[in-house]
Amino acid sequence: MTAPLLSVKNLTIDYIGETDDFRAVDNVSFDVAPGEVFGLAGESGCGKSTIAFAISRLHKPPALIRKESAILLDGRNVLDLDQKGLADFRWREVAMVFQSAMNSLNPVLRIEQQFYDVLKTHKGMRRAAARDRTAEMLRLVDISPDRMRDYPHQFSGGMRQRIVIAICLALDPRLIVMDEPTTALDVVVQREILQRINELRRKLGFAVLFITHDLGLMVQFCDRIGIMLGGKLVEQGSADAIYRTPEHDYTKKLWASFPSLHGGVLR
Amino acid sequence: MTSTSAPILTLDKVSKTFGNGPGAVRAARAISFSLHAGRALAVVGESGSGKTTCARIAMREYEPSEGRLLYKGKPVDKAGAKEIADYRRSVQMIFQDPFASLNPAHTIAYHLKRPLMLHRPELKGAAVAEEIKALLRQVKLDPDMIAPRYPHELSGGQRQRVNIARALAAKPEVIVADEPTSMLDVSVRLGVLNLLSEMKQEMNLGLLYITHDIATARYVAEDIAVMYAGQIVEWGNTGKVIDNPAHPYTRLLLSAVPDPDIRFDDPNAQVSATEADETRRRSAADQATIREIEPDHFVRTA
């Protein structure tokens, strides 16, 4: 395997309480190769979103990353970055799509302005250049560039989600963290969006950390998958192995809880 | 949908329009289906397709703009107060959000006591407490542990079981379940669906199961109706409709269901966004002609 792009090592995160601490992430280690889609699956409360936030250092107190943890992007420890380093790192190196991302657009600003904010802040781009880049990015996600003067409410949910993804891609990040990016969308729209992201990562070469609770969807999209239970990464392997030859009891149980379209349950 | 028993509840060419003039939304267009004792009908479709409107019409929350709602063969709108009360008891609902559908200020026992007092006044004193326990046991919750608790002390799955118990308290003949598992964790979903299926069998209930998840529809329901833009575009035996879909929209919906056997990289598995838009556009037009594909499998075409 080539050198990993992202390397999470012994990541342990506690939520500090008055009397007890709650261990949300317990000694988790995994690697994501350049251009790879790595999936984290698990139920609510298993710590998968906490990991997603920690990678961009977006976690807030009372979350505390324990000392022995390391999050290496290209060998550089994200946990050691100062404020300036962090500002350069976020969005340019690692972009994030949140769960209800389609609601994360500013409703009173035109789409063009929201692209401009990012491009100006991170790259010091001028209006005209930013407009060209915006048009290019919108085309990438199948949205007509002449709609950049529209406001978010003039788009459907699926289109808004694609716009958020386009903004994420605007700075050519090397890793995109997607935390349940399509749970609020219908299956057809979900498929369209993820298919498009899959094509784009083949073309542009970014890696994806994909978080969802839908194992079937995960196997379709991911190269490798990690299964989380109670803060621990209990199993990781290729998508095919997780689907066909799951080892851990919990992984087997998860599969047994998905009804199949063709009758019965998936496994 | 074919069944030998007489239907309990029937929607007969029911339409519902919101607003008027050019901006009016036809949320339900000439919807017809029946619910039979001991059978489940799944209504599937994307958000905005009109599934919940159908559920609300069945619950008499919405008055249909056109068409009739029949209860045991009799139109409900002509029913007297006593018959309406009987209808209210007989048709019970389970809601999507297990967190919002229980009152945070009251115990679980209270939630089950209310429908018992209202719908089963013959129960008095200790009999009410006994019945509360029996209901909780029926949904596989420990009565002594759960009854005195408040909703916030229970998990989502436990709360949804309490919702089922509350619906059963009225001794209903029909249960309308609107996305009962979409807010639950994957590992508890199946347990709740299994419980609904058991209740349907044991108590001979008619179940209207509203969902966007076509795989769970197959798991739960004998019959299926696929909705798009306010119309039922295809319906019949669940296995037949899913294995041999005839309407372009049904095919589109099925092609997008997550399936671990198909990788996104597989060129044969691509769902084309432009074709999908075209299918949606055509399916939104009036689908007036009904065609029988095979016994117990029907499709509407333009």
- Quick one: how many beta strands of chain A? 11
Structural class of chain A: alpha/beta
Structural class of chain B: alpha/beta
User: How far apart are the first and last residues' alpha carbons of chain B, in Å?
Assistant: 21 Å
Pick out the low-confidence regions of chain B.
none
Give the proportion of residues in helices of chain B: 25-40%
For the sheet with most strands of chain B, the description reads:
8 strands, mixed
Strand order of the largest sheet of chain A: 7-8-9-3-10-11
Q: Span between N and C termini of chain A? A: 30 Å
Give the C-alpha Rg of chain B. 20 Å
Describe, in short, the structure shown:
The complex is a heterodimer of chains A (267) and B (302). With 267 residues, chain A is of the alpha/beta class.
Word description of this protein:
The complex is a heterodimer of chains A (267) and B (302). Chain A is built from nine helices and eleven strands. Chain A has helices at residues 48-55, 83-89, 111-123, 127-140, 157-169, 187-204, 215-221, 239-244, 249-256, and strands at 6-15, 22-32, 37-41, 63-65, 70-73, 76-77, 94-97, 175-179, 207-212, 224-229, 232-238. The mean pLDDT of chain A is 91. Chain B has helices spanning 51-58, 81-90, 108-119, 126-138, 143-146, 156-169, 186-202, 214-220, 238-243, 248-255, 273-284, and strands spanning 9-18, 25-35, 40-44, 66-71, 74-75, 91-94, 174-178, 206-211, 223-228, 231-237, 289-294, 297-301. The radius of gyration of chain B is 20 Å and the shape is globular. The mean pLDDT of chain B is 92. At the A-B interface, helix 6, helix 7 and helix 9 of A face helix 7, helix 8, helix 9 and helix 10 of B.
Q: What are the defining features of this structure?
A:
heterodimer; A: 267 residues; alpha/beta; 6-stranded mixed sheet; 5-stranded antiparallel sheet; 35% helix; 24% strand; B: 302 residues; 8-stranded mixed sheet; 4-stranded antiparallel sheet; 12 strands; 37% helix; globular
